[in-house]
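[Q] Does anyone have a clean structure-token version of this?
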Amino acid sequence: MANYTQTTKSISLDEYGIKNAEVYYQLPPEKLHDIAIAKGQGVEASSGALAVNTGEFTGRSPLDRFIVKDDVTKDRVWWGNVNIPFDPNDFQKLYDKVTHYLSGKEVFVRDSYACADENYKLNIRVITEYAWSNQFAYNMFLRPTEEELKDFSPEWTIVNAPGFMADPAVDATRQHNFAILDFTRKIALIGGTGYTGEIKKGIFSALNFILPVFKETLPMHCSANIGKDGDTAIFFGLSGTGKTTLSADPERRLIGDDEHGWTKENTVFNFEGGCYAKVINLCEENEPDIFKAIKKGAILENVILDASGKVDFNDISITPNTRVSYPIDHIDNIAVPSIGKNPKNIFFLTADAFGVLPPISKLTPSQAAYHFISGYTAKVAGTEAGVVEPVPNFSACFGAPFMPLHPAKYAEMLSEKMKETGVSVWLVNTGWTGGPYGVGTRMKLKYTRAMINAVLNGDLGLYDYDHYHIHSVFGVAQPRSCPGVPTEVLSPRTTWNNDEAYYTMAFKLTNAFRENFKKFESFASEEIRRGGPQRYAF
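[A] Here you go.
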């Protein structure tokens, strides 16, 4: 076994069923970086970042995510194809096999925590087979001080074994990979996949159950930042809609880029201690903060390097889901601690590939709840086999794969928060204008930033006829003018220059909204149901 320097103390993993392992506890990221390179599991990019290949899986595998169905979860979880039940006895057998697999091996252990607000802190022990998986945990979770580690008591445990392959016929899994949450044992068990996002999203999913059920706190798949006057802005959005990019604003302090809680005390806190950003087509001009964060300590996933170690961010030959993780302090302008108060504006981000939604519009409370439950964005032609035209992609609460409860529960909590605080909610289309994907063009980032800034600066005027136009199909209020944005850009119909084609496509999208919402109608209030598009084509 190698001799890696300990930083605090050595520990035994016997209590977890991992026997005779060479345990390396709380190694610094620099050491983990070097170990990964020494083992041939990664290389150093020219920026100093560690570049790794996650192997067979370059993204999450939603159909292989399970929740143990027991007394804690059976009557609370919204069971189905998002939350797939797993038998407690099968879990114990599989857990024993994984811990036996890790016994006698080098194992890397890290104590960390989630939730920046002390009142909601969740202590986590991360046990990983690979050094770089442990470095990812260092980047993404909050980092205890040496003093805090002395009496550290983990509440949840993550066991991560990418090299372990399940046998579906014996282990009750769908295939050889799995990510399973057990809320009674408080364990996230991950095997058969090296994709680090399973580590991050495992704890996010756990908190999406714990916080609303036990802590009266709304968990959110969003980014957040805070202005000079202390006003907090929240950005909801699925992958590729600009959630990370738009929250990284040099004029505002970043709270976090992906996972937050909104408490009954009306504070917003980051779950994490780092960022996990997509880097497809990344360039310094458009996303300077993320670009500069890619340095020693960061981990690049599934990117292509040239002979000199320079990353080609446009190369998606491994996957379009190229990523970087880094500690949040790689960003210059951050909130310390990662907490904000007084949320004033919420932005729902959607990359509308149909090109029919306004680039920005203001939502009523009922519309906000409807669009929150819907969680709309779109897939574009060419991204998947068989996709030849835009396809609507609905993910409830902008994070359905991570939501153990029924989406209506989260939507009701958001509606209550909106009413309590008077927060304004905006729908922002970062997708296409002038036509659908393949005909129109992607909304310019500078225009989206200008619209966001206009909201934050209070420059979009009063909510009245002089300043807003009610969209004839979607019923949302689109501003008539915005500083820094050509007036014609604000009206999607105008950008098409073909009314018949525009309305045909708009009605197609409203039908998709209505069809998707059918599965929520029996759970949603009349107020929420009235928030959807009121016109549609037969």
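[Q] Thanks! Anything notable?
[A] The longest strand covers residues 106-114.
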